[in-house]
Amino acid sequence: MSIEKMIAEHPQVGGDYNPQLGQAVKHAMYCAAICNSCADACSAEEMEMRRCIRLCLDCSDVCTATYRVASRRTDHNRQLIRSLLATCIAACEVCEAECSQHDNAHCRRCAQMCRECAEDCRKALETLNDEAHEAA
C-alpha cells in the first residue's frame, strides 16, 4: 500500500500530484512512529533521558499533524501545509540534534529518520513555495 498512490488517486488531485509532497507525507508518517518508539525506548534507558523523550514526543506530534493535513487534498490549503512543513522541519532538526548526542541504536535510528524527514519536508516546501510564486 502506498500513501503516494492514495494521494495521487484523489479526485481533486488529477494531474496536479506533487511527488515531493507525497514523499514528505510518507516520511512524516514514518518519522512520527519512529520518534514515538524512540521516546518509549528512552524511557527504558538507565540514564537521564527526559529531554530526549520530550523532543521525540513533540516531533512525533508535529509529524503526525503534518502528514494528516498534507495528505488532505480537498480544497488545497497550501498556506497551512507550508506552515506545517516548516514546523516539521524545525521539530525534526531539534529532535535529530538531541538524539545524535546519545549512543544507542534507537536514538541513532531516530536521528536518521528526522534528517530524512526534514530534508523531504524542505523539498516539498520549496515546490509549494514555487507554486505560490508562479500563481502570483
Question: Which properties best describe this structure?
Answer:
136 residues, mainly alpha, 5 helices
From the helix content, strand content and strand pairing, which structural class follows? Answer: mainly alpha
Q: Mean pLDDT, as a whole number? A: 90
Largest sheet, in brief, is: none
Q: What helical percentage do the residues reach?
A: over 70%
Describe what you observe in this structure:
The protein is mainly alpha-helical and 136 residues long. It has 5 helices and no strands. It is elongated and about 50 Å long. It starts with a helix and ends with a helix.
Q: Could you give the topology of this structure?
A:
Layout: H1 3-8, H2 19-43, H3 50-70, H4 78-99, H5 105-135
